[in-house]
């Protein structure tokens, strides 16, 4: 039933807006993170363990979600829609991302120490010496990158698979979220066990990163921002995150910089509070457009 898939998208949106993220002790992604943490240690054959973890753990997450949704569908299709909506809520995140990024932008003008502390939950970098401009840059960069990784990617998987099966759609969103969680926890050069997870994440996020960049350019009314972003891709170590970040840098006419790693749009200034806020809100608007498109695709 196409209506149940679209209903699941609507339920996920309503829950995200009204309720937000559940506490960690009740959050399935946090539960999954504990499984990943068990892998995060020294191994005699780290690459083999890394490959097994990259293959098995996302399949486990997808299988659990598929089983719960299938059982709900067996009871009643609309019960399945509700459970699938719950699954989509915990595998996508927009409200918290936008709220936290806006909070850091505001704190950068009022409480720099507080902004540095808050940034730890949003961006993986040392914020202890960051200036207000670099703090705002980090907030905008993280919002753009997480739009692709944490929202568009699982939402797109759900939408594409929904016409086939609601159960498969929910499982697909869970699988993508699990892949990204593995990478965020293990995908560092200092962790040999995380290499396979990082490579898998690069592959899975290839299309969502580019779709997110396209959404950002269209929402900003700056379609040529995509072409400008392409000039700076070699600056960014990730093969994917440079697309949404660079597109937003071009659309806002600001410099986005991670000290010692990359500079996007080097000829511009770091984002002012007003431009940083506008960039985060453009991420939010892009997420809304993505949700509408997902609902339409799921209906087909």
From TrEMBL:
* Cellular component GO terms held in the UniProt record: plasma membrane
Please state where this protein is localized. Cell membrane
What processes in GO biological process is this protein linked to? Answer: cobalamin biosynthetic process
Please give the start and end residues of each transmembrane region.
48-71, 151-176, 279-299
Q: Name the Pfam families for this protein.
A: CobD_Cbib
Which InterPro entries does the record cross-reference, listed alphabetically? Cobalamin_biosynth_CobD/CbiB
Membrane topology qualifier: Multi-pass membrane protein
Q: Which domain of life is it from?
A: Archaea
Pathway it belongs to?
Cofactor biosynthesis; adenosylcobalamin biosynthesis
* Protein family according to the UniProt entry: Belongs to the CobD/CbiB family.
User: What does the UniProt function comment say about this protein?
Assistant: Converts cobyric acid to cobinamide by the addition of aminopropanol on the F carboxylic group.
What name is this protein filed under?
Probable cobalamin biosynthesis protein CobD
Its taxonomic placement starts with: Archaea, Methanobacteriati, Methanobacteriota, Stenosarchaea group, Halobacteria
- Source gene? cbiB
């Amino acid at each position: 039933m196409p209506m149940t898939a679209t209903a699941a998208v609507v339920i996920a949106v309503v829950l995200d807006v009204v309720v937000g993220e559940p506490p960690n002790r009740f959050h399935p992604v946090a539960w999954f993170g504990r499984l990943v943490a068990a892998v995060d240690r020294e191994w005699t054959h780290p690459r083999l363990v890394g490959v097994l973890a990259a293959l098995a753990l996302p399949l486990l997450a997808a299988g659990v979600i598929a089983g719960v949704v299938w059982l709900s569908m067996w009871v009643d299709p609309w019960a399945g829609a509700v459970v699938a909506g719950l699954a989509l809520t915990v595998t996508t995140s927009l409200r918290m991302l936008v709220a936290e990024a806006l909070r850091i932008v505001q704190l950068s003008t009022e409480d720099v120490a507080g902004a540095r502390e808050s940034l730890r939950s949003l961006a993986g970098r040392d914020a202890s010496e960051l200036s207000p401009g670099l703090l705002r840059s980090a907030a905008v960069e993280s919002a753009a990158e997480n739009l692709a990784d944490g929202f568009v990617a699982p939402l797109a998987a759900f939408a594409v698979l929904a016409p086939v099966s609601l159960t498969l759609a929910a499982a697909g969103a869970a699988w993508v979220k699990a892949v990204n969680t593995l990478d965020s926890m293990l995908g560092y050069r200092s962790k040999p066990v995380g290499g396979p997870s990082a490579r898998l994440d690069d592959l899975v996020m290839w299309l969502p990163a580019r779709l997110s960049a396209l959404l950002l350019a269209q929402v900003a009314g700056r379609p040529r921002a995509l072409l400008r972003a392409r000039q700076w891709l070699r600056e960014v170590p990730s093969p994917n995150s440079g697309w949404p970040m660079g597109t937003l840098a071009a659309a806002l006419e600001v410099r986005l910089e991670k000290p010692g790693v990359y500079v996007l749009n080097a000829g511009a200034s770091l984002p002012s509070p007003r431009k940083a806020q506008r960039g985060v809100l453009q991420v939010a608007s892009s997420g809304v457009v993505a949700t509408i498109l997902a609902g339409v695709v799921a209906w087909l």
